[in-house]
Amino acid sequence: MAKQFAIIGLGRFGSSVARTLYEMDFEVMGIDENEDRINEIIQYVTHAVVADSTDEMALKEIGIRNFDVVVVAIGADIQASILTVLILKEMGVKKIVAKAQNERHGQVLYKVGADRVVFPERDMGVRVAHNLISANVLDFIELAEDYSVAEVVVSRSMVSNTLRQLDVRAKFGVNVIAIKSGENFNIAPGPDEVIKEKDVLVVIGHNRDLKDFEEQE
Fold first, then answer.
1. Nearest to 24 by CA among 54, 2, 9
2. Who has greater pLDDT, 163 or 1?
3. 187 membership: H or E segment, kind and range
4. How far is CA 22 from CA 8, 29, 115, 134, in A?
């Protein structure tokens, strides 16, 4: 049975993850308290719901416990982020992946029950290499048994090419959901985005395909 995902917070990061998972044929529910964001994402997810994630009754009505993975991608409201993770943990959600604004925020998210914390805007220099996969991988997030998100330093052959020219989806079966260039973080980059030396690609895909992609020169 295919994994089911719920994405809470449909800003740039959350909506990118939701759309990519949906395009990979997973069942995805998008949740946000902003109706405009729900309207923007509704055709790119299986279900979309306007709800306050800090309202335990609202989450129960959604049936949030039925999802295999819940991604808390709430943006600037750190208090709402922490409270949401706490409620999800108390409700018995199987796996909680939460976005953090900074190291301290991340520490609190772990303490209140997050299984995995991601720092999409953090400087790549402080990321720990995921040496079990490849020397080029800076971080690795398992979303499901066979699917993950990885941060990969670009290879020499990629530099000066556009995403359209690289066509990694057709060649490797993975999707680029963001590009990190120094301190800049480009969510959902366009096909004409040019890859530069030392860029980091945030890619999502099947673990087998990610491994092939990470090992290219």
1. 2
2. 163
3. strand 184-187
4. 15, 9, 22, 27
N residues, the chain:
217
**The pLDDT of residue 76:** 82
- Amino acid present at 156: R
Structure tokens at 49: 């719901």
pLDDT tens track for 7-29: 999 988 888 888 888 888 889 99
How far, CA to CA in Å, does 63 sit from each of 38, 82, 119, 146? 18, 20, 27, 24
* pLDDT tens-digit map of 110-127: 999 999 888 775 433 223
Q: Which amino acid is at 145?
A: E
- Contact between 201 and 176 (Cβ < 8 Å): yes
In degrees, to the nearest 5, what angle opens at C-alpha 182 toward C-alphas 98 and 186? Answer: 55
Is the pLDDT assigned to residue 2 strictly greater than 70? Answer: no
The 3-class SS string of the chain reads CCCEEEEECCCHHHHHHHHHHHHCCCEEEEEECCHHHHHHHHHHCCEEEECCCCCHHHHHHHCHHHCCEEEECCCCCHHHHHHHHHHHHHHCCCCEEEECCCHHHHHHHHHHCCCEEECCCCCHHHCCCCCCCCCCEEEEEECCCCEEEEEEECCHHHCCCEHHHHCHHHHHCCEEEEEEECCEEEECCCCCCECCCCCEEEEEEEHHHHHHHHCCC
Half-sphere exposure of 77 (CA within 13 A, CB side): 17
Helix, strand, or coil (residue 151): strand
